[in-house]
Amino acid sequence: MNPRLTQLGSALLLALGCAGVQAADWSDTYIGYRYGRDFAEPFGASDITKNIVNLGHSSGYKYGTNFLNVDLLLSDSKDPSAPDSSSGAQEIYMVYRHTLDLSKVVGKNLGWGPFRSYGITAGFDANSKNDAGYNSKKRMVVAGPTVMFDVPGFLNVSVLELWESNAPYSKFSNVQTSRYSYDPHPMLTAAWGIPFNVGPVVGLSFEGFANYIAAKGKNEFGDSTAPETNIDAQIMYDVAQITGLAKNTLKVGIEYQFWKNKFGNNHHGAAGAGAFAKTPMLRAEYHF
Q1: What is the pLDDT of residue 22?
Q2: How far is residue 66's CA from residue 154's CA, in Å, rounded to a whole number?
């Protein structure tokens, strides 16, 4: 495996350690698997097959919540690991968010009307990919206010400022691009997990996230970036009632991702159809 992926895996262990510093009131950790055949990459194919294994963790403590997700994405040969290679690219993508709940900080219920509480969210994204053309090494810090809606489960909406940089390397030209910082730019983001039942079928949940990300100025090659929309939603089913497993141990479901102008690349421009992914997936999660 690419050494940069190993380094990012070490960062994962550090992030897990940071997430566990506070004594948790509740915690949920799981290993998941996703499969889809219509993934896309800017300047590349729009019918890439990927197998994705992920580690997810969320927890709550006295003053707020932690969320960590790490995806290991394994592409087929339509997203090659090197020019003219028949092997697919590998990528690790990590997301960490911490939300400070202001009601818990002040010791008073600040909820009103449809709002359960308010918070401040901060965190980071980081990735490393060993594909043929770009070899992304994204680093991004995020921070901003959050509104928590009073719904079954949770629905959090945040406006976050993003500070993003990258340092790609082209295997076609063997040129390393110095780390480049995009213009700071905002993101409107929502995350949700809402349980529901359909008649006698219980243990269903509607989960996912939606991001609208503003353009981030010029990219490292001097081209204008475009606003980006990334919506990823799934319906999951807790199989406890048909398997005898403990509740919330094994979940299966279907997922759909709509990703327009992926990574800020305009799908009407040179990035082409690969910058607009519409991807159905199968998903499974084992919680422990």
Answers
A1: 57
A2: 14
